[in-house]
Amino acid sequence: MSQSKKQANRLAKGGRIDRSRTLSFTFNGQSYQGHPGDTLASALLANGVDIVNRSFKYSRPRGIVAAGAEEPNAIVQLGSTEAGQVPNVRATQQALFAGLTARSTNGWPNVQRDMMGLVGKVGGKFMPPGFYYKTFMAPASMWMTYEKYIRKSAGLGRSPMEVDPDTYDHLHQHCDVLVVGGGAAGLAAALAAARSGARVIVADEQEDMGGSLLDSRETLDGKPADQWVAQVLEELAGCENVTLLPRTTANGYHDHNFVTLHERRTEHLSETAPLVNGHRPVRSRMHRVRAGQVILATGAHERPLVYAGNDVPGNLLAGAVSTYIRRYGVAPGNKLVLSTSNDYGYRAALDWKEAGREVVAIVDARQAPAGDWVEAARAQGIKVITGSAVIEAKGGSRVSAARVAKIDIDTFKVIGQAETLACDTIASSGGYSPVIHLASHTGARPTWRDDLLGFVPNLVKGVQACGGANGTYDLGEVLAEGVEAGVKAAAATGHAAPAVSLPQAKTLEQGPAAPLFQVPHEKPTLRAPKQFVDLQNDVTAAGIELATREGFESIEHVKRYTAMGFGTDQGKLGNINGMAIAARCLGRSIPEVGTTVFRPNYTPVTFGAIVGRHCRDLFDPERYTALHQWHVEHGAEFEDVGQWKRPWYFPQTINGKKETMHEAVARECLAVREKIGILDASTLGKIDIQGPDAREFLNRIYTNKWMKLDVGRVRYGLMCKDDGMLMDDGTTSCLGENHFLMTTTTGGAAGVLEWLELWHQTEWPELQVYFTSVTDHWATMTITGPEARKLLAEITDIDLDRDTFKFMDWRAGKVAGVPARVFRISFTGELAYEINVQANYAMHVWKTLFEHGDKYGLTPYGTETMHVLRAEKGFIIAGQDSDGSVTPEDLGMQWAVGYDKPFSWVGKRALSRSDTRRTDRKQLVGLKPKDPKVVLEEGAQIVFDPKHAIPMPMAGHVTSSYYSPTLDSGFALGVVKGGHNKLGETVYLPMADGQTHEAEIVSPIFYDPKGERQNV
Amino acid sequence: MFYIHCPYCGEHREEEEFHPKGQAHIERPKDPEACSDEEWGDYLFFRDNPRGVHHELWVHAVGCRKFFNVTRHTVTYEILETYKMGEQPRITAESLASQQTQGNVQVASGGQQTVGATNAAAPSVKGEQV
């Protein structure tokens, strides 16, 4: 490739760039050069790059329009490597660095020649708002297909397909005063607040703080305004109580002065964070700031005028033209026509002239503009055409001429002949709109001000707006307002601010503006060449007019129908113009039509910053039991149960071949049924309950009776919500007269504790009872199987005699020489002992059990085997076999319900409601597949009549289903309407693949129905 | 994200430390068996959804684990007060309405002046305890 082209539009002097150094970069494969201090946008303009993208819907060529966050067109994809891909970057906000690689996000095969462009040109009339919805609506099933191709041609940028090499941090910050925006108002506010001693954070989204002062024509104390900026920043940087955050965007303003700041720390240096001493620094930080007071000094965005062809490259905002000339030393063209409704726009023409370029004319919509700015322009010999506007831009890939005509704003008409002025650049200004995005995140609706022709923010507590964000544009007033806001904010947080002397601003007097939004054309809007309102979403004035004709009257509906202000744009340039057009079409005023509000984020935020360190291993905490390391060393496969890692099964290598899960589970099941198995049950929730009223409390919270449970005894209990539906189950043991130990399901532990506390604190505070979570303090090891007593007897001093230490008893003593509680409860149906020891002793006890257990065939088993064994016995898992709509009676557990307890316990009243008395409720049953080889799918729907026309009435579903090695058959638990009275009947399970399984309704207890094995 | 003053800890803490537990001051009927199905259904399932002042039950779940009450404006999300279990709110829809008719915009005890008009949205009295 040839050496990069000359920077044809670079001015010989001026701007805050370092001409002594040159940076090379590539855009769409072409290499160019710029200077430190450039943005990608200013460098592209310096190199005369007119087309930077193709538009979203019509694929029209688009150029750079703005110089900041409001840029709608120059949205690029960054990245020279796959891992470094970054979508959605505004070229106007991306600092130039050596080697920067960027591409347009839209346009295929390229932005110069685009296939869809023809559609946009020829077919434009056939793509009204709602085009996609209307055209591709039927059949609905095809939408997914259409959408894929529509999106492909639209091109919205793409995410990287490789792992992000960068790291991101979250910082939690507290401050007294958060100042958003480091322009004139923000710096004045920060200065006042800082001098009070308050803790201040100043966030500004740009490379340098200073805002409009960096390219201002105005002087402060007779000196260029950026000298004052430097002086203030120096003072602030020296204050210990001030944090300056440049390149930091306040993205979202949330409840109670919680503001998220996205600080980009390395994106101005290189694609991924550059290595420093072999370390990769953090690429960006998300500051989560809780501020005492917030000052919004977010400035204002210039509003473009809406005229025909206003999207042809070479149409810019007037303010952006000034910024490119004064801040970056770039004149983005040679012959300028300025179309304005106000005095502010005049600056662009004066700057253009001073840059040595030709100003063809200033076209002013006002009939008789007068005042300082107009006189200044005339004094420069610039032609001012009054009562007129640019009604149409001509040109294809670049503006070639402006059609200018007299207009009547009130009647929305062009008067007389249009005149064509040859030019390559049209700058327009319709005035300024305060940046109210953050203020609207709080839900506060903004207020229209006729004198400003703009919305100003309404504010919630603890926040002020100042300067442009508040509709104040005169520099002297802006500074004064900033100081006032800073003083007030400091005072509200208890800090008195000393006086701040402000520099004298020398500004020209601003005259009144004309209320011009859409410029009339000779043809009616619907037939005129396209007049764009929202360039990013390709929304035209005609589109909005059409929407109102189709009956969309609410601005919220117009927005959704046309997509105006959608996506990453958030209506920065187009919203007010769109509302004004809707108001005109509906014959209402703008405040009557109202405004849509804005959402976070203000500008796109990379997912890395949102996620911070909460990814991969740190995405969610992992909880390990005290025996975890043993499980790892013995090859356990793990299952996530809540945050716990539980052994799922322990595959063995037999004859050089590792067992499948099916084989391992079958082996583990048989070991328990025939010899002895061991389970790490430490994750079971454990709640220690003490107090003189502990027993009464249990009586009220559980469905069954607790008054007669003696010390040393254990009882299984059901817990319902007050709607009578099962919420959790578990055993509770009486440790002492006023002392109980409750167990909960692994996943239910935290919820059950909160449930107990809720009832105690809000309904029965008079009960003296105390709850303590002891889940982590105790490790639980279950040994179960016919050999369990023999094994335990070898290492305990507890008397295990079957008649003195009965089923559902617990005993204290020593196991393997350490203090233990041993509970004789069974979740497998076999003889079982649950050994509880302090977690730190667990590994010792576990290993001792294995030292003695080998000769009995002691086999570790995991949760899968636990499930098979418990389901064979018809033991439910709350939350699997029940789902919040299941009563104890639905589960066939009337035996655990104490209807005659004196206190109306939680859930009792609901069990006598007509709905809970229905006999056709879904009830828990066993399901025996007719074909023993079939293992039914959990969740499969059950029907009574498989020949019933679709939709078939659903009769229930499978809740648990496994293969039983003991029965050598599939078996399942499920809920079936009226199931308790349907034993022996056949039900059907139609599957997605067209098969229909048959199953017989049986008792849910498949194994040892009399419970003799656990009672030995 | 809310910034909530726990009346037991005496400190403002982040919302992440708390769990919301629904409408406050819902008392379980003293004699459930004496309730009709409809009355019991009302107690179980029916809650107010006012536009304006609302009293809510929260728990300082990863703090002191105490339940307490929050008076919150459902439009502005402003927390007007928090108070302990067993206490009654000082700020209600009625008290706020009468304050505002007296031209007093000082809403809460927090010492901050309400700025702008949005807070003045007269809270609906309808929907309070039926």
TrEMBL record, chain B:
It comes from the Bacteria. Residues 96-117 have a biased composition (Polar residues). Residues 96-130 are annotated as: Disordered. InterPro entries: SoxD (IPR006279), SoxD_sf (IPR038561). Signal peptide: none annotated. NCBIfam families: soxD (TIGR01374). This is Sarcosine oxidase subunit delta. It comes from Billgrantia bachuensis.
